[in-house]
Amino acid sequence: MRLLNLSLDEIEQLVISLDEPKYRAKQLYSGLQAGKEIEEINISKELKQKLALNGHTVGGVTIHQKLISKIDGTIKYLYQLEDGNIIEGVLMHYKHGSTLCVSTQVGCRMHCAFCASTIGGLVRHLESGEILGQVIAANRDNYKENSRGVTNIVLMGSGEPLDNYDNVLKFLKLVSCENGLNISMRNISLSTCGLVDKIYQLAKEKLGITLSLSLHAPTDEKRKEIMPVSKAYNLKETIDAMHYYVKNTGRRVVFEYALIDQFNDTKECAVKLKQLVKGMQCHINLIPLNSVDESGLKGSKTDRVNAFKKMLEDQGLSVTIRREMGADISGACGQLRRSYLKKEDADWNTSV
Ligand code: SAH
To answer: How far is the CA of 193 from the centre of ligand 1 (A)?
Structure first.
């Protein structure tokens, strides 16, 4: 068993099943949530031995590499999983706290044309404890007496969270548990490329998290060119699901829109975008596209990004441009892992 997958109740059941007193469960759980290895945790030697004998491991992540941006202090992590797989995350510091971007899968099978995470496809889903482990590792790495560590989480790293629904849901429950990290659902955002059935399922959970949809194009024709998921779910179905999310949860939703030069940054697109989200309690987050070598797509220049923003604002929409954080350390989704894997390939090739 990987222990970080377990809630406090489940740890209690495990401890009892190992013929140990129940109070040890809290000690074990607190140690795990603080990012300790089993050896470091303040529990009896016997319990440590029993855990080892039964093959129980922490099941989190270790920091494999860490890059700190000279521009804004953003930290980019490469984490290693117990099976050796590598995933990535980003910690961004703001005035109100620190936001950690977490991965939900090793790789991704959604194949968006502009995204580095999907090159090479899906390797495997992450377990709930491996997603939680990213928060715990970043916390342990950053926690100082005068800092609260990670205060906000965005599920916007590698992977499609709703393609790994059960593990992601369990993660949300684990990370918000008051005996554990106690990060409020209100401080968590989940981003999806638009798995419509799962959006309905999530809406019914009424969790209080913010839902973001990666929209990126305002017509089916254009969206199909860059996002294969739109062949399974058209825009009308997708927008209907977002309306349902707002209605059922009372939460405003966010649309992410990565601006690709001359493709989706035109006046016509701005008008279509407004028609699409008309009447919905929503916010638009414009992202200047980070170019990924393999895709051949180019991001819009700053003046076109600003002009597009103004066109949306003039139609009464609430819009921000996402600040580029850590641009000097491979900012966007999947790019750091990608450059890491490429380097591995190169090393391997030269040694043949
Ligand atoms: N699979 C989820 C979450 C992961 S990606 C989703 O699709 O929403 C987080 C955000 O980064 C998404 O909006 C994604 O479309 C965007 N993104 C991916 N590659 C990008 C790139 N090269 N430049 C800008 N944004 C990118």
So the answer is: 8
